[in-house]
TrEMBL record:
Domain spans labelled Zer-1-like leucine-rich repeats region: 193-334
GO cellular component, one term: Cul2-RING ubiquitin ligase complex
Lineage: superkingdom: Eukaryota
Classification lineage: Eukaryota, Metazoa, Chordata, Craniata, Vertebrata
Subunit structure: Interacts with the ELOC-ELOB/Elongin BC complex. Part of an E3 ubiquitin ligase complex including ZER1, CUL2 and Elongin BC.
Name recorded for this polypeptide: Protein zer-1 homolog
Keywords for the protein's UniProt record, in alphabetical order: Acetylation, Leucine-rich repeat, Repeat, Ubl conjugation pathway
Length: 809
């Protein structure tokens, strides 16, 4: 199981300072610019961590607001020291690098910083005397500067400035630079002249850069230990140059197999050359290559003996000449990864879980196109088989989703994989901390990527968690996201169906303060709009039924939400639904349950006192829908109205006595041993109907309800009855002259006397939804699988397990 070790003090302090910059490290100058307090000095270990954690928060925590002048805190090296920083995405602009230009940086990683322009090239010169490692991966515009086009009037109409490629910049003066990444640099940059001044490069990444002449690489044949040429269209000339780099320990000539412009085909001869000429090689990546010749041994020889990584037994013939097994061999999306004897300790491929996880680990940061396909393979493994390295798989998927939150393919495959990696089968292996990380990355995906499949997958993944317990640390945020999904203007029914499920769960097991807060966020209004839309379409589906169910839950003991329901034409919708869908039993139960909550609020009951409403409630007393539930709830509504006395009966028809008679008849028709589709967390609304003589029928309904519940569910409800002071009230009923004899008989429930032991009372009201209904389809880019949630009407809503069925689209 993953560890729940608390975060280090350094981590907690760093996070707190970054979220409270102007109250801890700095102060606001002119209400805008951050300045470091003059009495603070921070060493490089703390400064580096502050900057790197800040970048992480900006890119992964959607609730974190970046500060425009954050980097100005580190402008003075006399009070702050920066040495190793990793910046990424659009967070970083030219002025940010300019703010720290006086720092003696040793390591600077700029990844996909597309807002950087040629101004930052000049800033880089400020670090030339100290910089050892530099990455400009994906900084596509850093070699462009803006120039007034002068006479280019037509172009100015479209773009007021023209971007001009800078060709005169070189790394002259970067004497200490050893590690350089120029991956995905734009075409046209003169790579050879750019790099020529560097005398002692040890590592070079030219991913995605096309150069027909690679001879310039030989100037580092005595120093270069790592060379990455991912997605470079190679030729025999390139191979001749590569094998001269005899110090190489890591060589990556892999490519994306879906790209069609590659002419070069890998041969047995080339692999043999690598083994013969590059004697120090420890890591080789040839992923995505089509092998032109058969490099494997015979099938009979391969199947003989146990799996081995010894070069002498290699199934790949050229690798039998290796002096030792490779530390890493990249074979993802090649036929070689499926061979038995591969001479490497770690192999990326698509043969099994280990190879797939190795691929995700190796390619996540810089190759999202490869990573998404590897995660899709993991999705299939988790869906069809069993994931044996669960914790590693979860952490890798979380990292990929954080790193590429705007990449559609990764968001789709990653969210789909998370659904299967977090289901109840794996729950015991996951720590609270890890599951919280999953929740956060899921919510990030929902906020950052408004794509139907991603939204659906994320919602289904949330169904795997104990609700609301595991979501409470993000309670407001998740409710806001779900309410936005439930906006009736959105037409995707499958997402709405799942979102209503989640909303129902979130409001059914929380205290009244939470319910009121969610009501103010627009929960009640959103549900009513959904119901109204369904009415217009004349459709009574799960969304309709679950919306009423959610309203039933959120109005439980929350007068403000009950009032909101009435103020936004809730009663009209109730009558319209009753008329339009007379045979929908579960719908009727949910609606009457909600109106029972409204009727419990004394100040709101006058709004129910109309001839139309009273007639409807009276007619529903004879309903046999859903057992006794509709009739029971209708009687409950009328019991509270009757409790206000004859003087409050403000309608001529139907008459109070007539309604009373129908209530008595209904109660007498119910089976006292009926099993119920309702759960009480408190008996207070029922108990208040006992000590009174104004309405004997209300008293009788309350007594019947208590007798039924403690008789059928003694372990659950006897302790609650005792805890809330129900026993003295029932004894008083027995002594009351106004109480009917049958009421007095029911006030002596045997189970109460037998089960007076104190036990934890039920704390929450459950979600009222049907069992075993399909609520969504979890989808990767190449497959879709319908999900059926198990019963949501358990005592505690936990572990929403799922049944999977194949579905081909």
């Amino acid at each position: 199981m993953a560890s729940d070790t608390p975060e280090s003090l350094m981590t907690l302090c760093t996070d707190f300072c970054l979220r409270n910059l102007d109250g801890t490290l700095g102060y606001l100058l002119d209400k805008e610019t951050l300045r470091l307090h003059p009495d603070i000095f921070l060493p490089s270990e703390i400064c580096d961590r502050l900057v790197n954690e800040y970048v992480e928060l900006v890119n992964t925590a959607c609730t974190f607001e970046p500060h425009e002048s954050f980097f100005s805190l580190f402008s003075d090296p006399r009070s702050t020291r920066l040495t190793r920083i990793h910046l990424r995405e659009d967070l970083v602009q030219d002025q940010d690098l300019e703010a720290i230009r006086k720092q003696d940086l040793v390591e600077l990683y700029l990844t996909n910083c597309e807002k950087l322009s040629a101004k930052s090239l000049q800033t880089l010169r400020s670090f030339s005397h100290t910089l050892v490692s530099l990455s400009l991966f994906g900084c596509a515009n850093i070699f462009y500067e803006e120039e007034n086009p002068g006479g280019c009037e037509d172009e100015c109409l479209v773009n007021p400035t023209c971007q001009v490629l800078v060709k005169d910049f070189t790394f002259e003066g970067f004497s200490r630079l050893r590690f350089l990444n120029l991956g995905r640099m734009i075409d046209g940059v003169p790579v050879e002249s750019l790099l020529r001044p560097l005398n002692s490069l040890a590592a070079l990444d030219l991913s995605g850069i096309q150069t027909s002449d690679a001879a310039f690489l030989t100037q580092w044949k005595d120093s270069l230990v790592s060379l990455v040429l991912y997605n470079m269209d190679l030729s025999d000339d390139h191979i001749r140059v590569i094998v001269q780099l005899h110090k190489l320990r890591h060589l990556d000539i892999s490519r994306d197999r879906l790209s069609s412009y590659y002419k070069f085909k890998l041969t047995r001869k080339v692999l043999s050359l690598f083994v013969q000429k590059l004697g120090n090689l420890m890591s080789l990546d040839i992923s995505g290559h089509m092998i032109l010749e058969n490099c494997s041994i015979s099938k009979m020889d391969e199947e003989a003996g146990q799996t081995s990584i010894e070069p002498s037994k290699s199934s790949i013939m050229p690798f039998r000449a290796l002096k030792r097994p490779l530390q890493f061999l990249g074979l993802f999306e090649t036929s070689l990864c499926r061979l038995t004897h591969i001479p490497a300790y770690k192999v990326s491929g698509d043969k099994n879980e280990e190879q797939v996880l190795n691929a995700i680990e190796a390619y996540t940061e810089h190759r999202p196109e490869i990573t998404s396909r590897a995660i899709n393979l993991l999705f299939d493994i988790a869906r069809i088989e069993r994931c044996n390295q669960l914790l590693r798989a979860l952490k890798l998927v979380i990292t990929a989703l954080k790193c590429h939150k705007y990449d559609k393919n990764i968001q789709v495959t990653g969210s789909a994989a998370l659904f299967y990696l977090t289901n109840s089968e794996y729950r015991s292996e996951q720590s609270v901390k890890l599951r919280r990380q999953v929740i956060q990355v899921v919510l990030n995906g929902m906020e950052s990527y408004q794509e139907v499949t991603v939204q659906r997958n994320c919602c289904l993944t949330l169904c795997n968690f104990s609700i609301p317990e595991e979501l409470e640390f993000q309670y407001r945020r998740v409710n806001e996201l779900l309410l936005s999904i439930l906006n009736p203007t959105r037409q995707d029914e499958s997402i709405q169906r799942i979102a209503v499920h989640l909303c129902n769960a979130l409001v059914c097991q929380v205290d009244n303060d939470h319910k009121e807060a969610v009501g103010k966020m627009g929960f009640v209004v959103t549900m009513l709009k959904l119901i109204q839309k369904k009415l217009l379409d004349k459709i009574c589906d799960q969304v309709m039924e679950f919306s009423w169910s959610a309203l039933w839950n959120i109005t439980d003991e929350t007068p403000d939400n009950c009032e909101m329901f009435l103020n936004f034409n809730g009663m009209k919708l109730f009558l319209d639904c009753l008329k339009e869908f007379p045979e929908k039993q579960e719908l009727h139960r949910n609606m009457l349950g909600l109106l029972g909550n409204v009727a419990e609020v004394k100040e709101l009951r006058p709004q129910l006192m109309t001839s139309q409403f009273i007639s409807v409630f009276s007619n529903l007393l004879e309903s046999k829908a859903d057992g006794i539930e509709v009739s029971y709830n209708a009687c409950g509504v009328l019991s509270h109205i009757m409790f206000d006395g004859p003087e409050a009966w403000g309608v001529c028809e139907p008459q109070r006595e007539e309604v009373e008679e129908r209530m008595w008849a209904a109660i007498q028709s119910w089976d006292i041993n009926s099993r119920r589709n309702i759960n009480y967390r408190s008996f207070e609304p029922i108990l208040r109907l006992l000590p009174q003589g104004i309405s004997p029928v209300s008293q009788h309904w309350a007594t019947w309800a208590l007798y039924n519940l403690v008789s059928v569910y003694p372990d659950k409800y006897c302790p609650l009855l005792v805890r809330e002071g129900g026993m003295p009230l029932l004894r008083d009923v027995i002594k009351m002259a106004t109480a009917r004899q049958e009421t007095k008989e029911m006030a002596r429930p045997p189970p109460v006397r037998e089960a007076l032991r104190l036990a934890p009372a039920p704390q929450r009201t459950d979600v009222k939804v049907a069992d075993g209904r399909s609520v969504g389809v979890i989808a990767g880019p190449e497959t879709s699988v319908p999900i059926v949630l198990s019963s949501w009407a358990q005592e505690r809503l936990k572990d929403a397990t799922c049944r999977k069925e194949p579905c081909w689209q």
